[in-house]
Structure formats: structure tokens, C-alpha cells
Amino acid sequence: MKLPLSWIKEYVEVPSDPDKLAEDLQFSGTKVESLEKESGDLILDFEITPNRSDCYSVIGIAREISSLYKKVLNLPKVFSEEIQTSKEEPPKLTTENENLCPAYTLGLVDLIKVSKSPTWIIEKLEKSGLRAINNIVDITNYVMLETGQPMHAFDVSKLKGSLKLRASRDGESITTLDNTHRDIPKDSIIIEDEDKIIDLAGLMGGKSSEVDSTTTTILLHVPIYDPVSIRKSSQILGLRTEASGRFEKKLDPAGHRFAFQRAVELLRIVAGGKLASKIMSLGYPPDPRFVSFPISLVERVLGINITKEKITEILEGLGFLIKRSSSDKKFFEVGVPTWRTDISSPIDLVEEIGRIYGYNNLPKTLPSEAVPDQVLAADNFELQIKRILVSLGLNEVIGSCLTSLKVITDLGIESSSCLRVKNRLIVDYEYLRPTLILSLLSSIKKNQISKSDLVFFETGRVFNSNLGKYGLPDQPKKLAVATYGLDFSYVRGYLQFLLGKLNIVGITFDKENVSFFDNPSVQINVKSQKLGVLGKINEKNLINSSLVGPIFAFEIDIETLKKLSNPIVYRSLPKYPVSKENISLFVPDNVTFEIISSIIKKGAGDNLYKLELLEEGEINKKRSLLLALEYFDKKGTLDHKEVAKITSRFVQELENVGVQIR
């Protein structure tokens, strides 16, 4: 927000050194981005935080300066309601939903003469970054900058009948003051007369009711709109104005009345206007707000003892009303001024005291004791996964959760199954990623020219259209690993090593069709729960993505992984020697090592000490596995008969799935 220093000086005395003023304002929480000289004046560019809507005005900044330097705040002259004589009713305005417009003031002003604004108004507007149009429109903009309250003037001769404020419906449109025909987003706030829509409320007025050189009577409307509705409409339309920027904040619930009176006074002085109706207000005056404030909270939070007198001086200087509690002298009952919509609790008042007292004046002390860091269990588990993978030599990738339509379709994924950003800013970032493999492939693409083998992993959220908790799209956390220049055994080995380190047993594989993998790809299961998918990226998809293969990858669900993981329990070394035995098997193609391993572990029970796959090959066109088994017993050394007895406990089960003992 840009304001000329000369304008601020009309309301409060300021220090002679503007740099000192900017520094003091910054220390008190009102940041001055820059100071620039223009036409013999100094332009201050303020960066106002969204919660401080009261500072989006000349008066708001002057009030801050008044409190900082204990100077008198001189408010501008407003129209006195005591001299109002007209009994005429202004056009009736009905509100379909009061939540859309909880407060407003309106009235008729006639006998106006539309012309060029006087120089003093034009200069202030232009130095503040606004263009002068005519004296009527300029006055509404002038008062908006002065008070922070936007308003709009309608040409009464162009209105038909009573007015209605409501939420827009599908298919409605308006031509706005900039001669642009706009389709109005559903549920935007609009005002209509009996014939047409006359205002895209909070954003821009309609061309059909604009003030021009023939206007003699205006309807001055000073509203407070629902900030969320204004924000949504502004985002959808890509239309942001000085007015919408203010309406998006929580405005002073009493400010609309003051701004109306100020505008009427300027219309009288500048345009010869006269109030020609009653002043109609909704939601005025607002209910008073009080905060019960424990005085001891100041010392507890700021670490210094500030006297009650100083606390009172600071808060009253900011416009707060201080009352001593009748029941407890340790409390103040603090009346909150209407313009401070950000104040709702005692801690807010401590912040006000601290920033005016000066944070730089607070004593510097070290914490009395170290605050222990707390890591969430979910984050700790994810960190454990990363450490395991890094120990294997994998490189972590941190990709964007946004991607493009081309990247999705090149990988063979249907865009209809992906979530699209409604108000996208860049075409390359219009979809939420459905899989982490997208960013892994992007990293491989950037690096495969310079390296013959690559292994990347990433953890993060993916997004799909299935509705989850609270009716929102599912956002599960996943882990993905992708390899380039290595064969399938590597990516499978990384998966098995990770599961082993997490003490997850009972892994099985089923066939599954995944759009970006060669068919059949593999579904990873643990104890009948689906954990993820594993496969080779389809050659056609690689060509579409300008990638060279082979590329293997898997993606698994971290939450499921966490539920399946088991704490590693210490087991002492066998007291007695282990008995070793090698078993050679003929195995059908549809029987995995995991199935065999599960059967042996279940059959051998506590006597099994170690199971290892020594060799996999083919004999007489039959798939062959060579296993190394080690058995032990807590009570003594096992002999050959006891080993044979243990083996017999799982041989029959192996034969039941088609395995032959050689």
C-alpha cells in the first residue's frame, strides 16, 4: 500500500526524519518496504499483514504513529447527521442472505455536478497508485484510501425499482466498468435491480449503472461483504482491485457509517451534492466487545514488569477502553475498538503492549532450560525408511506435488482419474500427482545422459479422486523407488531388504495391471494386505516421456508399511551348535520364493534359525531353487533323525503347492 507522507501529516504530527519514522513503524509491526521521492513528496510503501485490516488506510497508519509518538490524532471532518432534513427513503435494498453482507450504509445524494476532481484529490490518488476518473468516483476512492472502507456510487437514473443483494446462479454475466463482459462465478455476491445485475459486489461495478457526465443523483452504498466470498470470486475471475483487497479482510463493523458520512461531506464540498434521503444502515452500531485481561500476563509473556499506568497509556493510545474490574483488581476489562477486528484474547493485548513498548527494549535472556525436540512417530518412521535406503546407496528426490497433463498422459495415466487444480497459474503445474514415480522418472531423465546406472527414491503424498476422510480426496503417503541401468533383481532386492529391516514377513506377489508398467506387473501383498505395486515401466511410455530403459520401479503405501512393521526383538545366539541342511527343489513358475519361505518358517517353527536362497536356475526345463537351512534347539544339539523330523513338518505342505524335493 502506497501513501504520500504529506497526506499522513494532515492527521498526525510525524518526526522530521522519515527514515526514523519508517524504522519505528517497522519495530512496532508496520513494515515500510520503501521510501521514494515523487513530485516533492515522499511516498511510503507499506507491507501490511492480513490481520491488520485497520492499517489499510491513511487514518490507520496515522493512528499507529499517534500511539508511537503520543501525538494527537486529527480525524477528518464528516457530514453531521444533525443537519439531515430529508425524510425520503432511499431505494429499498433487500439481502437474500445476511451472511453475504452483514452490514452496510446507503443513502441518496443529489444536485451533484460531475466534473474533473480538484488537484489536491488527483495528486493524492495518483501518488497512492490510483487513476483519477471524475470527482464522484474519485471521492469514493479517496475515502477508501483514507478510511480503509470501500464504497460504490450508482447513477440512480439508471436503476429500476428496488434492489436485491444475493448469491449469483449458474449462467449469469455482467459487463463491468472496464467494458469487459464477465461470466459470474456461481455464489459470487451480486446486486440487481428489477431489470438487471448492476454490481459484481466487492470487485467491480456494472457498466449499466456507472456514474457519467449526465449523472445528477447517486445512490452511495458502503457495504461490508463476506471476505471468503469476495476472495473466491476474485481468484476465479483473476480480478483483483483495491476494493477487493480490502473486502477480503475483516473490516471495521462500524466503519461503513463513518466512511459514508465522510464521503457525503466531500461530495458536498467538491461536487455540490446534498444528502437527499434518510441514511439507512444495517448492522449498526455493532455490539461492543470486551476482553478480560490478567495484568500479570504481561510479565509472564514479555519477561518484564510494566506498570498498570504504562499498560493503560499504551492501550488507550491505541483506542482501547480500560475499565478496572470491580471483582478483581488483578484484571482489566478492556473494551476493544471496532476497527481492531484482530483482537479477541488476552494474548493479543500482550502483543499490542509489547510492540508499542518496543521489542528491542525487552531484556535479552537465555532460555532457562533446553526445550526437547519432539519428533512425531510418523515422521520418525519415515526417517527410518530413508536411512535404510540411503545405506543401500539410493539417492533421495524431492519433487513437486504438481505436474502437467503431458507428463501424466505420456506415462499412460488417464487424466480423468487425476485431480486438476481449479485455478491453475501455470499450465505445467495443473494436476496433482497421482504417483511418485512421475518425479522419479523426471530425475532419471535429467541424469541418465551422464550416468549408466541410477537409483532414486522419494517419499511424499499422492492424490487421487477417491473421497476419504471429511469428504476430501485421498492423500496417502507413499514411498517409491526407481532404477535405471540395473536389472529387476535390484529393485526387488531393495524392497526385500527394506521389509526385512522393518521386520515385515509374509510378503507375496500377485499379478496386477498398472497403466505405466508392462503387463503383467506385480501387486505386493503382506499378510493379505495390499502394500503396493512393482514392475517395469512400459517401453511405449518410456518413448513418450523421452526416456531410455529399462526402468524398474515400485511404489508402496507408508501408512500400511508402518502398520505391518514389527519391532526387532533381540534373540541370543544358540547355546548349542546349529544343524545345517541344503534342500534342492523343483518349483512351478507360479510359486514364489516368498510362498516357499512362508511354508518352511511355519512348519519349522522355533527350530528354524536361518533360511537362505543360495541358487536359482533351470534343470531339464524345470525351475530349480537351492535353499540353505539351519536348525537349532534350546535344549541340546540336534541329530540327523531330529533334523529329518523338523523337515517332514513342511515337506507335505510344499508338495501341496506343486513343489518337488529333488
What is the chains' assembly state?
A: single chain
Low-confidence stretches: none
What is the class of the largest domain in the CATH system?
Answer: Alpha Beta
Largest sheet report: 7 strands, mixed
List strands and helices in order, with pairings.
Layout: E1 2-4, H1 5-8, H2 18-27, E2 31-38, E3 41-47, H3 58-69, E4 93-95, E5 103-110, H4 119-127, H5 135-147, E6 152-155, E7 163-167, E8 173-175, E9 181-183, E10 189-192, E11 197-200, E12 204-205, E13 218-224, H6 227-237, H7 242-247, H8 255-271, E14 274-275, E15 280-282, E16 289-294, H9 296-302, H10 308-317, E17 321-324, E18 331-336, H11 346-357, H12 377-391, E19 395-396, E20 402-403, H13 405-410, E21 431-432, H14 437-447, E22 454-461, E23 477-484, H15 488-501, E24 507-512, E25 521-526, E26 529-536, H16 539-544, E27 551-557, H17 558-564, E28 579-586, H18 593-604, E29 608-619, E30 622-631, H19 640-656, E31 660-661
Parallel strand pairs: 4-7, 19-22
Antiparallel strand pairs: 1-3, 2-3, 5-13, 5-14, 5-15, 6-13, 7-10, 8-9, 10-11, 11-12, 16-18, 17-18, 20-21, 22-23, 23-27, 24-25, 25-26, 26-27, 28-30, 28-31, 29-30
